[in-house]
Every structure is written in C-alpha cells, then in structure tokens.
Design goal:
Blueprint: E1 6-9, H1 13-25, E2 33-36, H2 44-47, H3 51-54, E3 58-62, H4 70-75, H5 88-96, H6 133-154, H7 169-178, E4 180-182, E5 188-190, E6 200-208, E7 214-223, E8 226-229, E9 256-260, E10 268-272, E11 277-279, E12 287-289, E13 294-296, E14 303-305, H8 316-341, H9 346-350, H10 353-373, H11 379-416, H12 426-450, E15 455-458, E16 466-469, H13 477-497, H14 507-531, H15 536-568, H16 579-589, H17 606-618, E17 624-625, E18 649-650
Parallel strand pairs: 1-2, 2-3
Antiparallel strand pairs: 3-6, 4-5, 6-7, 7-8, 9-10, 11-12, 13-14, 15-16, 17-18
Helix pairs in contact: 6-7, 8-10, 8-15, 10-11, 10-15, 11-12, 11-13, 12-13, 13-14, 14-15
GO molecular function: G protein-coupled receptor activity
Keywords: Cell membrane, G-protein coupled receptor, Glycoprotein, Membrane, Receptor, Transducer, Transmembrane, Transmembrane helix
Subcellular location: Cell membrane
C-alpha cells in the first residue's frame, strides 16, 4: 500500500525497537505515524535512541490505580516474615545483590560472594512497584467472590460440601461472570457480556516538547466504550499541527461517485456521473438519473426543476397575437353596429340578417379564442381551447354552408320543377345552421368524456419542460378540426357550383373567394404547425394568428361590399338602385319561365324580388290582375295581365300561395 502512512503495530518492546531501527536505516524517518498497542507503549527500550522515528506515536496503556495498603505491606516484608513464598528469597537476593544463608544456588546468587545479613530493608527509594498491580488484585478478588457465592448457594456456608468436591469448572465460570465488587483500588469491577473485564485505557502520545526533548504524555482516555481525546494536545511533528494523511485514495470531488477496489474498504476510484445524473445520497457508489423535467445542479447532488415554458401574455409573441385579435374584435363590433343600426335597409335584408348575425358571432369567437391561447395551460384553459377552437369555426362555416346551399337549391330547383324548395325561410335557415353547429358540440363533448382535457409537461429533449395542453402534443386537435374542415370543403364545393349565378346574386362569388383563401391559409398552416414543435410560443402564436386570419378573410370578403354601400353610397341602399341590374337577371331567368311585373319592381329590392317571384311561381300561384288601365297589344307574347305598367298583382287564392302582398313574403336572403 504505497499511500499508507498510518501503521498499527502489535508487538513486544524488543520487536518494535527493531522496526524503528529498520526505519532509520531505510531513511524513512518521519514517513510513518504509529499506533501502538499496550505491549510496547511507554517502553524506554523502544524510544531510547529512536526518538525521531517514534515521534508522534499514539498508544494505549491500561489504566490502573494504586492498590491501597499494598505498598506498606510489601515494604514491611522480610525473608523471615514471608517464608510461605519460596521465590521471595530469590527476589531478596537479586534486589540486594547478596546470598541468603542456607539458600539454594540460583542464577540470582551464583555471581556474588556477599552474604545477606537479614537486616536489609525494603524502602520506597530502592523498590519499584508494578504499575499494573490493580489487574492482579482484581483477578484474585474475582475468584474469591465467585467461590464465596458458589459456596453460599451449594454448601449454604457450612464448610466444604460434596457439591464442591470436586468443583465443577463450568459451574464456577457461571458464578465468575456474575461477580460485581469494588476492588482495592476503589474502582468498580464486573465482567461484560463477552467475559472481558472493564476496558479502561489511557491514551498516551510521544511528542517533542520543547525541541530536542521527547516525552510520553497522556492526551485522553477510553473508559468502557467512551473515548475522550484532547485534540489540541496532539502534535505529530514539531510545528506541524495538522495530522498526517494516510489514505489509499483521496476523497472524490463533489459530484463524483466511488467505485471501491475489490476486497478493499479504503481504496476506490472516482468517476463522474453522467450529464443527467446525481450522486445517490444514500449510496455514494451509485448515480441516480434525474426525472424528466429536472436537471442536476452544478454539484450533481440535487435535481432541480426546469422552469416551465409556456407562452405568457407579456411576451412579444402573445402581444402580437392579441393585438391582431383585438383589431379583429373591434372590426367585428363595428360591422355588427352598422348592421344593427341599418337593420331594415335593403342591403342588410338582402344579405340575410339572421345568418349574418350568426356569422359575425362566429367571427367574434375566432378572434376571442386567441386570448384563451395565451393563458397558462390548466385543465379549465385546455377544456376551453379544445371546445372553442372547433366551435368558432363550426359557427362560421355552418352559416356559410347554409347560405350557399340555399342559393344552390333555389336556382337548381327552378330548372327542374315549379315546386317551392323547403327550409328556405329565415327561421328554417337558423335551425339548419344550429343543427350544423350542434354536430361539433356533440363531437367535442364525446371527445372530452373519452379523453378529459388536462395540462401536461412535454419534453422534446431532457432540457425541455413545456407546459402544454395534452391535445396539442399529438394529432388530437384533428378531432376538433375534422368537422370544420368538412364544412370548409362542402362550402368550397357549393361556391364552385354557384359561381355562374347571375350578377345580382354575386354574394356567392364572395363566399367562394372566402373559401379559396381559407383553404390556402390552412394548407400553409399545417406544415408550420408541425415544424414548430420545439417552440411553444411560436406554435401557439401561429395557431391563433391562423384562426384570426380565417376570421378576417370571412369578415373582409363577405361584409366589406355591404359596408361600402351602407356607409359610402347610401343612395344605392334602395330598391330602385338595382333596377338596371335586375333587368339582366330577369332575362337570364326567363328560360325558367320566370316573369316579373314591372309595376312591382319598385316595390321590392330586386335581389329579393326576383327570388320572391321565382318562389311564388314554383309554389303554383298565378298572378291575376285586380285593376288595369291598358290592354296588351296583339303582338305582345306575354299574358294580357302582365303587359300594362299600372297593373298590380295579388296571389291567387290557392292553399299553396303566399298570403298578403309580395313585399310581405319572408325575405329570400343571400
């Protein structure tokens, strides 16, 4: 282990002294920090002559307190007083360097001729006591208390009984584990669950204080599981307060995980977590993936939420879309105001007042939906978007389809039959339009039940966190557009079929131009919508602007010609102004056997009048004169009652004819 600097040595003082000499020979002095066992701690044999190598050593030494009364007892002993100890004579001879009379020859007296007098005296100055005497005392007393307790239980304190003769060692061990007493040193003694005596150690430290002077000092203690250490007293090297570093691997940098070397608990390799991972707080050897919508912080310790991205009303994209829609709302309001204030004028009546109001309502909704698109997506907002997007188009194009269908049926029916077409009155037309809109309501309602609207987080890449309505991230919006697209296609077909209608009925041409332009707008929108998936603001802005453009096309193409007459040329907003144009229409319709009395041309607006007359003829009613001041010439091909300029017409009294004068017949509006 090339990086190891801390060394724990279990050994005797002789062995450790040899290690220190080897360190010096290899010029490794100061390279290691030693942790010593009690077998060589504070032993002069180790430190003498090896001070520089031993410096900084931390070691443990069993904590032992003096045994009360033992010093006095031992110092009072003599050979004569301690004959029960056969080894005491040898100790006496070795201690005083003499040979006791009549003693046996031993290695301790063989080298001396001096004879002991018996008057020698043991004193504190010439006697050194063993520091660990407490452990001997506690060991002896442990057996004494174990014998006492065993004798009390088995023999009831009455001498040596058969139960203890001989003594059962296993049974004695049971009593020995249970002993508890206060020893001669004053410390409480008992065995722990493992059968060990109390763990009491002093932590000693070999350091240089001052320079050139080395000594063992106590810097802490370990008492029965509790460690106390005076860190300020530690000094591994003189004038180097920082402890030495002894590691197999350096700590990993912040955001790095560990991969331990097989079989090692202190050696590892550091590796970086990937871009979207953090270090597992519970296991520093693993990296965890951040959830979608979150990214690791700079330290790769936590996953932070990515800010939600959605169009905000204060963004320039939203401001532009709302400004465009606001202008459209104002324009729609102006048109509505003009139509209401000129409600009974010929131009407004000829345009079909009821369906025009429905159409303006749909245009207003198209502009208004933009303000919903720029709101923060939520369940309510997504529901309004889903319903409103298809509904506003259904209102607009249902009204247009009703108009074009009505025109086509009236003129086509005149070529085939004289029977009046059904469902062409204003009330009928409103019912037809309402039925068309209700289809979209049902489709959207079923869609919301099957797939409830909700706001979701959409992630194109890991760095994205788009907050969008769920329907906008897939093709679900096709459901909202499917029915309006069908209406657009049918309206466009009708616009093509009615393009050759006489000029007086030229609103069909305006409707046709509206539908052609709308198709072009939406064909351009589709690729733009799908190519802006990674830009939420642009996609929403494109959608709302496209909706507003469709509404603008309908508003401008269908209502500008009418506003032009109403506001700029009010003199043309009368029935007589269309007489010249009406004459052309009459000639075009003569092939269908349609005739109109010139005396009534001034009574009804020509556009409406021609249809009224057409419908009356198809209904089977024959006009008849009520008064006449002129007779048709013989060369006139018309019936006599249609020739004079002063003839007035009334419907024939048949069940199928209209009741009342012609001008009271419900308007046939385009």
């Amino acid at each position: 282990k090339h990086h190891a600097r801390g060394v724990i040595i279990f050994g005797s003082d002789q062995e450790v002294a040899g290690v220190m000499r080897a360190v010096r020979r290899n010029n490794a002095t100061g390279s290691f920090s030693w942790i010593g066992s009690d077998g060589w701690s504070a032993r002069s044999l180790v430190s003498s002559g090896n001070e520089a190598e031993v410096e900084g050593t931390l070691s443990v030494q069993p904590q032992a307190n003096p045994v009360g009364g033992f010093d006095d007892y031992f110092l009072s002993l003599t050979v004569e007083k301690n004959k029960r100890n056969p080894w005491f004579v040898e100790y006496w001879e070795n201690h005083f360097g003499c040979r006791y009379p009549n003693s046996s020859l031993t290695p301790y007296n063989a080298g001396t001729t001096k004879e002991c007098s018996g008057e020698e005296q043991l004193t504190v100055k010439n006697t050194q006591f063993e520091a660990q005497l407490q452990f001997v005392s506690d060991a002896v007393m442990s057996f004494a208390y174990a014998f006492r307790d065993m004798h009390r239980d088995l023999c009831e304190g009455r001498g040596l009984c058969a139960a203890m003769n001989p003594i059962d060692g296993v049974q004695l061990l049971t009593y020995l584990r249970k002993v508890t007493f206060t020893g001669l040193s004053g410390d409480r003694f008992k065995f722990d669950d493992n059968g060990d005596g109390p763990a009491r150690y002093n932590i000693i430290h070999f350091k240089q204080v001052p320079r050139g002077s080395y000594a063992w000092t106590t810097v802490g203690a370990y008492i029965e599981g509790e460690l106390s250490l005076n860190m300020s007293a530690l000094q591994f090297k003189l004038e180097e307060p920082q402890p030495p570093s002894s590691v197999c691997s350096l700590p990993c940098l912040t955001g790095q995980a560990k991969k331990y070397v097989e079989g090692e608990s202190c050696c590892w390799h550091c590796f970086n977590c990937s871009t979207y991972q953090i270090v597992n707080p519970a296991d520093e050897t693993q990296c965890l993936d951040c959830a979608w919508g979150t990214l690791p912080n700079d330290d790769h310790l936590h996953c932070n939420d990515i800010p939600e991205v959605y169009i905000r009303p204060k963004s320039w994209w939203a401001i532009g879309a709302m400004l465009f829609s606001s202008v459209g709302v104002v324009m729609t309001g102006v048109v509505m105001w003009v139509f209401v204030t000129h409600h009974n004028t010929p131009v407004v009546r000829a345009s079909g007042r009821e369906l025009s109001y429905v159409l303006l309502s749909g245009v207003f909704l198209c502009y208004s939906i933009t303000f919903v698109f720029v709101l923060k997506p939520s369940t309510v907002v997504c529901a309004v978007q889903r319903f409103g997007l298809g509904f506003c188009f259904a209102v607009v194009y249902s009204a247009l389809l009703t108009k074009t269908n009505r025109i086509s049926r009236i003129f086509n029916a005149g070529k085939r039959t004289t029977k009046r077409p059904s469902l062409i009155s204003p009330r009928s037309q409103l019912c037809v339009c309402l039925c068309g809109v209700s289809v979209q309501v049902v489709v959207t309602g079923v869609w919301c039940v099957v797939s409830p609207p909700r706001a979701v987080h959409h992630y194109l890449v890991r760095e994205d966190n788009f907050l969008v309505c769920e329907a906008s991230i897939n093709t679900s919006y096709v459901i909202a557009f499917a029915y309006p697209i069908g209406l657009i296609v049918v309206c466009t077909v009708y616009a093509v079929l009615t393009r050759k209608i006489p000029e007086a009925f030229n609103e069909s041409k305006h409707i046709g131009f509206t539908m052609y332009t709308t198709c072009i707008i939406w064909l351009a929108f589709v690729p733009i919508y799908f190519s802006t998936a990674n830009n939420v603001e642009l996609r929403i802005t494109t959608t709302s602007v496209t909706v507003s453009l469709s509404a603008t096309v309908a508003l401008v193409c269908l209502f500008t010609p009418k506003l032009y007459i109403i506001l700029l040329h009010p003199e043309r907003n009368v029935r007589q102004s269309m007489m010249t144009k009406y004459s052309t229409v009459r000639n075009n319709l003569s092939s269908s056997s349609q005739r109109v009395d010139s005396g009534t041309q001034s009574e009804v607006f020509p556009l409406d009048y021609e249809l009224h007359e057409k419908l009356r003829t198809m209904s089977g009613g024959q006009p008849r004169p009520t008064s006449s001041t002129q007779t048709c010439p013989a060369s006139c091909p018309l019936p006599e009652h249609r020739c004079g300029p002063t003839v007035t017409l009334t419907p024939s009294p048949t069940p199928s004819t209209f009741n009342g004068p012609v001008q009271d017949v419900p308007d046939v509006q385009l």
